[in-house]
Amino acid sequence: MNIIVASIFVQDQDKALKFYSEKLGFVKKEDVPAGEYRWITLVSPGDQAGTELLLEPSAHPAAKEYQKKIFAEGIPATMFGVADVHEEYKQLMEKGVTFTMEPTQMGEMTIAVFDDTCGNLIQIIEK
Fold this sequence. Notes:
InterPro entries: Glyas_Bleomycin-R_OHBP_Dase (IPR029068), Glyas_Fos-R_dOase_dom (IPR004360), VOC_core (IPR037523)
Distance between the termini: 24 Å
Shape: globular
Mean pLDDT: 97
CATH architecture: Roll
Number of helices: 3
Structural class: alpha/beta
Strand order of the largest sheet: 1-4-3-2
Helix content: 25-40%
Protein name: VOC family protein
Strand content: 35-45%
Radius of gyration: 15 Å
CATH topology: 2,3-Dihydroxybiphenyl 1,2-Dioxygenase, domain 1
Oligomer: single chain
CATH class: Alpha Beta
């Protein structure tokens, strides 16, 4: 069994697609109609056959509530691995990304957390 798609709830699919592709550098893989919304996935530029990130609409009341509550508690919705948290932090800051936690050493890992402007906190981690 393999993880092929992981989803993240977003308030606005177009805004999320722009943020995740332009600010974070992910590559759009799928963008097809799916009823009222779209099936939009992105992949890492260096692994375009790898796990896809689905930009899932948070239209359902349970999804909205979940997203609001974990954001309010400061809990990241997901995490992305990076080679150098300090360098990634610097590059994302230059692109206007807002961080809620600067790079912080946690044992053998360094993490930072940013706001994706779509209702989520995202953690980046260097292991």
